[in-house]
Amino acid sequence: MADPAPAVRAPAVRPGGIVGVLAAAGIVAALMQTLVVPFIGDMPRMLDTSASNASWVVTATLLAGAVSIPVTGRLGDLLGKRTMLLACAVPLIAGSVVCALAATVVPMIIGRGLQGLGMGMIPLGISALRELLPPERLGTSIALISASLGIGGALGMPIAAAVAEHTNWRVLFWASSALSAMIAVLIWRLVPPTPPQAKGRLDVIGALGLGTGLVCLLLGVSKGADWGWTSGTTLGLLAAAAVVLPAWGWWELRSRDPLVDLRVTARRQVLFTNLASVLVGCAMYAQALIVMQLLQLPEATGYGLGQTMLAAGLWMAPSGLTMMAVSPLGAKLSAATAPKVTLGVGSLIIAIGYGSSTVLMGSTWGLLVITVICNAGVGLAYGAMPALIMSAVPASETASANGFNTLMRSVGTTVSAAVVGVVLAEMTTSMGGHVLPSESGFLTSMLFGCGVALLAAAVTLAIPGRPARRPAKHAAPAKQSARSMT
Hints:
This protein is mostly helical. It has helices at about 5-10, 15-35, 45, 50-55, 55-80, 80-100, 105-115, 120-130, 135-165, 170-190, 205-225, 230-255, 260-265, 270-295, 310-335, 340-355, 355-360, 365-390, 400-425, 440-460, 475-485; strands at about 430, 435.
C-alpha cells in the first residue's frame, strides 16, 4: 500500500494545532474515567439506590471502553481516523447529557456506558499523527497524546471534587458535554481528513467474541471482591472468559479480515510491549487508589492525613501535570536511544516512586513526592508504547494495534484495582466501631506496585533493540516510521 501521508500534509495544516486538538481530545476522554470517583460514596443517596448498584456507575465506563476500543481502532483503519474521532465524540456528548438528566441509577449507568464508548479517541488520535505530521514532530506528539490518558485521569479528581463540594453534581456532566462538543468542533475544523489505510470489512463475529470475553473477564475481576472470589457468579464469569477468549483467538487466526491480527500481535516487539503495558497500567493505578484513601482517612488513625475531598484531589493534581511535562523528555530519550530504553527507564522510575513510600508515606508532602515520581515514570513509559507498536505494525493496522495496546493498559488497571482491593480488605484495623485498611495494608499495596513496575522493566529487556520488519508491501511506511521513532 502506498504511503498516503503526502496527500494529507497540505501546506495549510498547522501541526501544532493538530497536536493540541488531539491531546485535548485525549484528556477529555480520559476525564470521563475519574469524573465520578470523588463522589461515588454519595451516589447511593443522590440516586436513591444501594452501594452495590452505585458501583456500576464506574464499572459501566470500564466495560464499555474495553469493548469499544478495539472496534473503534479497526474502524479507524477501515474508515479513516478523523471520521472515527468525530464518531467517538457523539457518545461522549450523549452520555454526559444522559448523566446530567439522570434521577435514578439506571439512566446514570447508561450514560456512563456511553461515555466509555468515547475512550477510543486516545488510540485513534495517536494513530492519526502518523498520517498528519512530519517525521520530526512525530515522537514528541505521540508521547504527549499517549500521556493524556494519565493526565486526564489525574486532573479529573480535583475538578470533580471541587464541583461536588461547591455546586450541584449535575454541573459536572453538563460541563463535560460542553467540552466534548467543543472537541468535536475543533476536530472537524482543525484535523484534516485521513483516508482509510485498510481494506476489507469489520469482523462482527470477532467483535462480539472479544467483547463477550472481555466483559466476562473484567467483570469477574472488578466485581470479584464484592461478590466473593469463590462465588458462583465470579467463577462462572472467569470460566466463561477462559473459554470465549481462546475461541475468539481461533476465529481471528482464520478470519480474512480479523478485528485484531494476532499474527502481528505475536511479533516479539508488539507482544512484549503489550505485556509491559499491562504491568505499567497496573502500577499506574495502584498509587492513585492508595494515595487518595490515605489523604482522606482521619488523622486519628495515626497514618491518615485528614484531608477534605477537594484538598485530596488538589494534592493529586501535580502528578498529572508531571506526566505532561516529562512526555517531551521521553520523546528525546527515545530519539537518542530507542523507545524500549524509555519504557524501561520509565518503569524503573515508577518502582523508585513506590519504593520511596517506605519513608515518605506519613505526610501530605511525602505522598505528593511519591505520586510525582510515579507519574513521571508513567509519562515516560506511556509515551514510548505507541512508538514501539507503530514501528512494528503495517500502516493498515496502526489504529487497531494502538487500540489493542490501550486495551492492555485498561486490563492492567482493572487487575490493579482488584489486587489492591483484596490487600486493603484483608489487612485491616478497627477504630470507633469501623473497620479500616491498616497502615501495613497500604504499605503492602505500595510494595506490590513497586514489584509490578520492576517486572515491567524486566519485560522491556525482551523487546528487540530495533523495530521489527514489516511485510514488503508496507516497506515504505515502515522505513519512515522507524526513522522517526527509534
